[in-house]
Amino acid sequence: MEQTASVNAEPVQRPDTNGTCTQWRNRSGFWLLGLCNNFAYVVMLSAAHDILQKQESQNGTLPTSATSAVEFQGGNSSNSSRYDCNPVSTAAVLLADILPTLAIKLSAPFVIHKLPYGFRVLFCAIMAATSFLLVSFSSAVWMSILGVIFASIGAGLGELSFLSLTVYFSRDMLGYWGSGTGGAGVAGAFLYSILTQAGLSPQVTLLLMLVVPVAMLLSYFLLLVLPPSLPQWRVRETEYTAVGSEDRRALMDESEEEEQEKSTPAEDRTAGPLAFTEKLHVIKGLLRFVFPLGLVYFAEYFINQGLMELLYFPKFFLSHAEQYRWYQTLYQVGVLVSRSSLCCVKIRNLWALSVLQVVNAVLLLFAVRFQFLPSVWLVFVIVLYEGLLGGAAYVNTFYFISKESGDRHREFAMAAASVGDSLGIALAGITAFPVHRYFCSL
User: Fold this and answer.
1) CA–CA distances in Å: residue 137 to residues 144, 194, 198
2) 124, 198, 199, 219: which could join 32 in a potential S-S bond, CB 3.0 to 4.6 Å?
3) What's the pTM?
4) Is the pLDDT of residue 63 over 80?
């Protein structure tokens, strides 16, 4: 009887279902936040050709019925250029899509700690919804560009906020966030291409996408399991400290925690606000990550918004607008695959990715000028490869920043380094203008 009692008294080992459920909720939450945050930004770039084509048609001499017939169908019958160019480069939409983001990323890391995370997410969702409404109901170029600017503001603030938010969770959440942003590219470009090609007008397509900002709010407020240390609705008393590091370690596995202890100096794990000079020191250390990331994005967005519109094959069964949409879609497929690869492969040599992307840009620049590529299918392959390089550079950059930064600096470093891709994209947009003007004059 005593043996039976002692056996019955032994605790039953049950799996940690609560911990597993929390992990999957957080993984799903970060993936969806990445998807929702970048969705409007991607859709605006996919619609760039259509936005400008629409305004050209509306401002032309065609009657209303004829205008509606040619809207968003691609091809510019009044254009004598062999490249079938829009009068304004799609780089105009790119600049409207990235310059506000760049401004936010340059300034916000120094002051964003004063705005609690809950308010940031609400603001980002409102900006995304406003952008879809403005562009769908626009009647002039300036109104469309204003809608794109709203999308840029929301995406820029969201990116640096959610990258900083990963500091409060285990490091693998960064991989899910990156995969979600890649998913945004595929979902945004693919849905826009499919729905418009199926016969829906771009206006109706953009209105349907209002569900995305709602999904962002649900993902953050209902799906994520937020740690107690997170400044959700209150203003943080100190900025960018080691707050939340205990919650983060509780979610780490043993090997990751041991590695963290070895790589983080004891003085970095102390609390206290970061001085301005200390922030500048952190930024200086980030330059080895920011420069190669910026170069990768300069090359790929010079391709996307400076050259893709000019890579037109008139004898192919897809129209000019449809070819442009599928270039964007295949590029985003490559981004999704590489941004989801962090669990399988990690690439420390970021400069190698930069050089390969520059080679892509030079190749396609000469292809536009001399038109030696025999088929659009070859361009599809190059664009897919371009996306693989860009996505790998993004996710590996932030992984190694998170890994090599101390607890005290990590949240600030993640936000500050996000300026790298935006700076490269902005420079690409500026460079694309004279290139577009030159080719369209031929």
Assistant:
1) 8, 21, 20
2) 219
3) 0.75
4) no
